[in-house]
Amino acid sequence: MTERTHVTLELDDIQRGVLSPRPTPYAATYILFRIDDRAHGRELMRRASAVVTSAADSMSPLGETWVSVAVSYQGLKALGVPRESLDTFAWEFRQGMAARAKALGDTGESAPENWEPPLGTPDVHVVLTALAPDRAQLEKAIDHARPAYHRLPGVTAIWRQDCYVPPDEAEPFGYRDGISHPAVEGSGIAGSNRLEVPLKAGEFVLGYRDELGGVQTPQPGALGRNGTYVAFRKLHQRVAMFRRYLKDSSTDPEDEELLAAKIMGRWRSGAPLALSPLHDDPELGADRIRNNSFLYEQGDPAGFTTPGGCHIRRANPRDASVAGAPRLHRMIRRGTAYGPPLPKGVLEDDGADRGLMFTFVGAHLGRQFEFVQSQWMNDGVFFGAGDARDPVVGSNDGTGDFTIPRRPVRRRLPSLPRFVVTRGGEYCFMPGLSALRWLGELED
């Protein structure tokens, strides 16, 4: 699985949203569409192929701005993709995210019956994502994309979520986000961890060899090649609850920040505990060359520096042998904040909806996104912690705890509440540009 070969990706046919790290800061929006008329839906695909930016474009005509288009399983059906083709897509994708809720930990408050309409319904057919360095340029990007769906009465916009990444790149809980990005063979884009060997292209783009030597491609090849799967999720964050829990569990402000770092695996600045175990280091946290270049196995196998159950070590165990073969579960993760930030120091909820629009990108929904959610986020067996869940995003219910390895006596944070509630989402297929044209040229 570690033998490296030269791979040439067809970057001009891969959507830029698949491989390119996002600019900082930036504004983004997600717009969902329902297809009521097959012919108009196909015309939308044809027009979208002329609007979407490819991974070969280092700069789009609008600058550091681009548009991506993805289609759900119900969307492919609405477009009239033949059954023999639909059956070649990943079975998780065919079921849809709502049907996979139990496996993903979307239960209780996070269950599909509590999702924000129309998320989780068969009406979600197409997801258009636009992003730009600021709100003004974002509106230009949307104007640029509008001809793709303008004057198509058989295509209806049914939902929109505006999001942003602030200049300090902090997500609503206050941590610098968007730090980790894998290196993908043939992409020409450097990974954020200089110690990580680039992953096979087939882990993220369909039609190329993956880490197991296989090639996954929905059929026909004209539709599947150069595409990928994406999981969109709207995650509401209970910021005031998170702050109160840290405050109530700590002895003083310094201890509070240490607990926050132990729970996440990073200080709020983005500096990793692995490289700065005793105190925060904002300069390190802002350094894109150094802030993600570390491993766990040699220097900290027992988690005395970076707890095995902390968020970043669960999401990406790196070289940890207890995780089996972490490279098989590596994924591209994007997170974009939505809603107004809760002012610093406020410990009471103001009723505003705020959180993260999460996007997974990968060629294997099952062994990447779903495996990480079910086995690493919502279980602790892989590192010897029983049924312990991720302290930040796990489906906690007030009965679990978080353990911090420490000598001579470990520290335990009890009664973890659910800090993050799923408000909805969907599995989608992000076609290559030629596949968008293929969808636009379908005939009954």
From TrEMBL:
<dbReference type="GO" id="GO:0005829">
    <property type="term" value="C:cytosol"/>
</dbReference>
<dbReference type="InterPro" id="IPR011008">
    <property type="entry name" value="Dimeric_a/b-barrel"/>
</dbReference>
<dbReference type="InterPro" id="IPR049509">
    <property type="entry name" value="DyP_N"/>
</dbReference>
<comment type="similarity">
    <text>Belongs to the DyP-type peroxidase family.</text>
</comment>
<keyword id="KW-0479">Metal-binding</keyword>
<keyword id="KW-0575">Peroxidase</keyword>
<dbReference type="Pfam" id="PF21105">
    <property type="entry name" value="DyP_N"/>
</dbReference>
<dbReference type="GO" id="GO:0004601">
    <property type="term" value="F:peroxidase activity"/>
</dbReference>
<protein>
    <submittedName>
        <fullName>Dyp-type peroxidase family</fullName>
    </submittedName>
</protein>
<dbReference type="GO" id="GO:0020037">
    <property type="term" value="F:heme binding"/>
</dbReference>
<feature type="domain" description="DyP dimeric alpha+beta barrel">
    <location>
        <begin position="14"/>
        <end position="144"/>
    </location>
</feature>
<dbReference type="InterPro" id="IPR006314">
    <property type="entry name" value="Dyp_peroxidase"/>
</dbReference>
<dbReference type="GO" id="GO:0046872">
    <property type="term" value="F:metal ion binding"/>
</dbReference>
<keyword id="KW-0560">Oxidoreductase</keyword>
<keyword id="KW-0408">Iron</keyword>
